[in-house]
Amino acid sequence: MNETVPAPPAPRRRRRWLRWLIALPFLFLAASILQVAVLRFIDPPFSAFMAARQFQAWGSGDFGFRVAYDWRDLDEISSNVPVALVASEDQNFAEHFGFDLKAIEKARKNNARGRKVRGGSTISQQTAKNLFLWSGRSWVRKGIEAWYTLLIELMWPKHRIIEVYANIAEFGDGVYGAQAAARTYYRKDAARLGPAEAARMAAVLPNPKRYSIARPGPYVQRRANAIQRQMRYIGGSGYLKQID
Fold first, then answer.
1. Were 120 and a residue from 39, 60, 86, 107 both cysteine, which residue would form a disulfide, CB within 3.0 to 4.6 Å?
2. pTM, rounded to two decimals
3. Which residues contact residue 37 at a Cβ distance below 8 angstroms, ignoring those fewer than 6 apart?
4. Which of 45, 17, 78 is CA-nearest to residue 176?
5. Cα within 13 Å of Cα(97), Cβ side
């Protein structure tokens, strides 16, 4: 009588690893969909960028460092803040599906001509990156960012996207969100921020570790003035009706 000879341990282990490798992409897709679905209704307690900054501080021995973060719903934040963010970074926010193709093409042409590098990222892309990912320019990270951007656009209304972004954007070293920035730099609640204050906050977003809300240099002052003009151009607080 023939008996089945069990496979050696090594081939069995290889098959198990192979099955896991095949399953990993599907597990990631399921987990990411669940993440975005949950955060449609639950306010994030922290973002990936916040966690990275906190671990960076601990890694350098700064155990007293604490991220400044205090969530506020959009109706508890001055309308000047989301309007300034849109005017500064993504004036087609209400119309696009997560990617501003015209801005991307313009950035490509500028970069090809050797001008100052511009990214063309939308608020949706920046929300995806800040909330779920890490900083960097690898193609892998950009691909994952694109996937999360699509999920956010499919599963969240525009109102939720700008609400989350206003709360997790970094306005200074370790200072995240409109409320924390308002308390840190203006000693007031985010609900009381005026157009000039909101514009100055938006002006530092290209590099909040280099530019300062508290000590704005000539670049930040010029940019803040330009953002105020754009805020009026897109309709001021009336713009928010487009994303309700």
1. 107
2. 0.86
3. 155
4. 45
5. 6
> For position 184, what pLDDT does the model report?
97
Interval 86-104: pLDDT, tens: 999 999 999 999 888 776 7
Token look-up 């970094």 returns 170
Do the beta carbons of residue 174 and residue 68 sit within 8 Å?
A: yes
How many other CB atoms sit within 10 Å of the CB of residue 173?
Answer: 13
Task: Answer for the pair 235, 119: CB distance below 8 angstroms, yes or no.
Answer: no
